[in-house]
Specification:
The structure is a single chain. By secondary structure, the chain is mostly beta strands. The chain has three domains: 24-160, Immunoglobulin-like (Sandwich); 166-244 and 396-421, Immunoglobulin-like; 249-383, Immunoglobulin-like. The chain has helices spanning 2-19, 200-203, and strands at residues 31-32, 37-44, 53-55, 62-68, 76-83, 98-100, 104-105, 108-111, 120-126, 131-133, 137-145, 151-160, 166-173, 183-191, 204-210, 213-221, 225-227, 230-233, 241-243, 249-252, 263-269, 272-277, 280-281, 298-300, 313-321, 329-334, 349-351, 356-364, 366-376, 382-383, 397-404, 413-421. Strands 1, 3, 5, 7, 11 and 12 form a six-stranded mixed sheet that branches. Strands 21, 22, 23, 25, 27 and 28 form a six-stranded mixed sheet that branches. The chain is globular and about 65 Å long.
Length: 424
């Protein structure tokens, strides 16, 4: 009997060791580790944009797409890493939350057709016959070349329990009088139903995302008051509020045969397509201007030619009129077009010859949203109001995620979510 127990324990630790991966060379966030990787999209199957949220054991699939400027196809693999509600690596081993293999190949790739910029386009649908997940919660989808020590990209994704709790709420003008014209408050109530929530002040957590951004997400929000089965996240201060910002700016480069929306000129020079976006003005103190946007997102399309991988790449020129001096920091073009990251190539620089701030981004054909954000010297906080201003009426989209760690377990379940929008 003792011998059998010993063999079982030895087998468990051997499997645990085999499943362990060198994940210390990546960040548990959306990131790209190779310069040639461009235009990453991660959504539900068939959707051009949206949050990568999947219901556990459902027929839904998540859909990863990206381009690689290295024209020889790479041998790419992927795996998944389970995380806590606040995006730290969980204490579970992969064999505890993955079914099937611990890693798999990305087999679906194709080449660009009749484009100036050559690229290889990769796609992955998940879950599949090779890898499935057995636990809900936060995950990192990790793509690497042949070996985990050569990371390609990481993406955050969320898998929610099939039996979800009710999340009802509203986005409204901030309650705090000093912020009521510039901030939006997200109040919501969680009805846990059949879930037995013991010690909710410790084990029940909420996360709020604005337009899918993680840099300014509210993570680990605790309920303010409640009773068994019903917990309210309704605050009077700024714990559950965001700067409203302004509606995103747009431009359209789906065609290179004529000027799209807010494109003043197109061209081709030195083997590169060029597009010039209409000049932008600073608007920190202007009145709110309504505009239906993609909430900072983009979608890729070539409207001139049909077919797979017909979208070309374009040098897109941005120019910002210096209505006032930018001091003690830098300004960047920002949105899904920069992967919601602060990137050096997106920093606007003053050109004294034309008296404008300007930058250029190399982008895939499509329709884009963007804005200008300010980052103070020595800080990593992104301020979307310094250039753009802020209004409580702005049409932002909020994602509310509810996590619960059952007593006696070691991981955070994702037990419910909802999308909320402003209702002026």
């Amino acid at each position: 009997m003792i011998k059998k127990i010993y063999i079982s324990l030895l087998l468990f630790f051997v499997l645990h060791s085999l499943c362990a991966q060198p994940f210390n060379n990546i960040v548990l966030d959306n990131a790209v580790y190779v310069e040639d990787i461009r235009s990453v999209k991660f959504t539900l199957e068939g959707l051009g944009f949206g949050q990568p949220i999947l219901i556990l054991n459902s027929d839904e699939k998540l859909w990863l797409r990206f381009d690689d400027f290295q024209t020889n196809a790479r041998y790419l693999k992927y795996t998944l890493i389970h995380c806590t509600h606040d995006w730290k690596m969980s204490d579970m081993s992969q064999i505890e939350y993955l079914e099937g293999y611990m890693e798999d190949d990305i087999k679906d790739f194709s080449y660009s057709f009749n484009t100036i910029q050559s690229y290889v386009h990769y796609e992955l649908l998940f879950p599949n016959d090779y890898i499935k997940v057995t636990k809900s919660g936060n995950y990192i989808l990790f793509v690497y070349e042949d070996d985990p020590s050569a990371p390609i990209l990481t993406r955050r994704m969320m898998i929610v329990e099939p039996m979800q709790v009710g999340v009802k709420g509203v986005v409204k003008q901030a309650t705090n009088v000093s912020d009521m014209y510039v901030r939006q408050e997200i109040d919501f109530v969680v009805n846990t139903g059949r879930y037995a929530v013991r010690n909710p002040s410790l084990y029940l957590n909420a996360t709020i995302l604005q337009n899918g951004r993680w840099d300014n997400a509210i993570i680990g929000l605790k309920y303010r008051f409640g009773k068994p089965g019903e917990y309210s996240f309704d605050y009077d201060d700024n714990q559950n509020s965001f700067a409203g910002g302004s509606e995103f700016r747009t431009f359209d480069i789906r065609t290179l045969h004529s000027n799209g929306a807010r494109i003043v000129s197109l061209g081709y020079k030195n083997g590169v397509n060029h597009a010039y976006v209409f000049e932008d003005k600073m608007r920190p103190f202007g009145a709110y201007e309504t505009n239906n946007t993609l909430k900072g997102r983009c979608f890729y399309r070539n409207s001139d030619y049909q077919g797979r991988n017909r979208e070309d790449y374009v040098d897109v020129y941005f120019s910002l009129r210096p209505d006032y001096q930018i001091v003690n920091g830098d300004v960047y073009v920002f949105g899904e077009l920069t992967d919601w990251q602060i990137k050096e190539e997106a920093k606007v620089k003053f050109n004294p010859e034309i008296n404008y701030w300007e930058t250029t981004l190399y982008l895939k054909q499509g329709f884009y949203n963007y804005q200008y954000v300010y980052v103070k010297n020595g800080s990593n906080v992104i301020d979307a109001t310094y250039i753009e201003g802020s209004h409580w009426q702005t049409g932002n989209e909020y994602t509310v995620l509810i996590y619960l760690q059952d007593e006696g377990t070691i991981y955070d379940k994702l037990i419910g979510f909802n999308y909320l929008t402003i209702t002026p």
